[in-house]
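Exercise 7b. Backbone tokens:
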């Protein structure tokens, strides 16, 4: 696959990743490399990655605990202290090897330590490949609330090697597919329809869909890097999805949902809202629901869960002037931003998902 050039950050694929990385390490005045991993990627991905790195530069490994529950300022403090103790300077390079949590938090740590270190993302999960590592959004959760602290700052490159997906659990693959489905729904109906034959898809075809998904996000981000307008469409499914994800993460009686699992629910619900409010055809809503449920199954959201989830919407980072803003579809590839929704319709959307 041909490398994708962006305004701030080039994206390289598979075998060419390491050619570009090694050239970068050779040509730049780097003092030391800091490799951020979690307890999963340290064992499953790091040996393979290091086997492709050609450099005499000193490499320090910093490991954090895996999981969204560790994407917080406390973890950042630990890494910032480790960087200090290991004598990181402003010519140091941070390489973030992991899923969306690693690329989000690693990018934030690099962007803020000594007012900014260079960094490279090496996403190892599908979700990070098609979404989290692309576009320069970095950050952490605050008090369990999603992504309230962060900056937009692209790394120097993204290296996407789909070989890492061979170690990924099935639920993590599904989590990434949710963002690919979203890209199709907001921008490309053909891309959306491709997932209806997912069970018979070849690896080559799936790699092509990864590439297409990245191109969709890249085009949106380049037109609106700071999310002042168009980039908001990437939040389809995320207003309710983030609230659901936060509720399940913080409720000890619930099994935590992966990001994509929650976004999949959000897309079904927000499609229903769009049918009532923006004229999205009912046949399309049912198609969206059927396609997503076929891949993800249904999560049990009880009646007692609905009001607490809706209450969490007030913390959504997209809110403006006291309004909770949704992205709703007028049709596939026709999203509308900054939509407000009545609470009664939110309750209906939960009943639609559960029906």
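Sequence design result:
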């Amino acid at each position: 696959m041909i490398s994708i050039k962006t305004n701030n950050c080039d994206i390289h694929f598979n075998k060419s990743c390491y050619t570009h990385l090694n050239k970068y390490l050779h040509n730049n005045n780097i003092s030391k490399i800091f490799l951020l991993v979690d307890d999963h990627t340290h064992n499953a991905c790091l040996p393979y990655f290091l086997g492709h790195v050609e450099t005499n530069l000193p490499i320090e490994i910093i490991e954090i605990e895996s999981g969204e529950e560790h994407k917080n300022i406390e973890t950042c403090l630990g890494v910032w202290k480790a960087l200090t103790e290991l004598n990181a300077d402003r010519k140091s390079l941070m390489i973030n090897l992991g899923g969306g949590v690693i690329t989000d938090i690693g990018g934030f740590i690099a962007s803020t330590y000594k007012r900014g270190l260079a960094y490279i993302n090496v996403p190892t999960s599908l979700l990070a490949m098609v979404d989290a590592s692309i576009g320069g959004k970095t950050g952490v959760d605050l008090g369990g609330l999603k992504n309230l602290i962060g900056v937009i700052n692209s790394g120097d490159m993204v290296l996407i090697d789909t070989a890492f997906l061979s170690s990924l659990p099935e639920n993590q693959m599904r989590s990434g597919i949710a963002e690919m489905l979203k890209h199709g729904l907001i921008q490309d109906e053909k891309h959306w329809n491709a997932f209806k034959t997912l069970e018979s898809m070849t690896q080559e075809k799936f790699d092509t869909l990864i590439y297409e998904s990245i191109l969709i996000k890249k085009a949106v981000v380049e037109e609106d890097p700071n999310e002042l307008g168009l980039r908001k469409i990437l939040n389809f499914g995320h207003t309710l999805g983030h609230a659901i994800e936060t509720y399940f993460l913080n409720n000890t009686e619930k099994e935590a949902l992966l990001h994509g699992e929650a976004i999949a629910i959000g897309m079904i619900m927000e499609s229903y809202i769009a049918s009532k409010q923006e004229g999205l055809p009912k046949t399309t809503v049912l198609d969206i629901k059927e396609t997503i449920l076929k891949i993800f199954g249904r999560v049990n959201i009880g009646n007692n869960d609905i009001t607490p989830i809706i209450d969490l919407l007030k913390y959504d980072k997209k809110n403006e002037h006291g309004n909770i803003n949704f992205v709703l579809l007028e049709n596939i590839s026709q999203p509308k931003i900054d939509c407000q929704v009545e609470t009664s319709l939110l309750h209906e959307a939960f009943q639609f998902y559960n029906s």
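Instructor comment: The beta strands are 10-13, 33-38, 59-64, 93-98, 118-123, 137-142, 145-152, 157-160, 326-331, 334-339. The CA atoms of residues 39 and 297 lie 28 Å apart.
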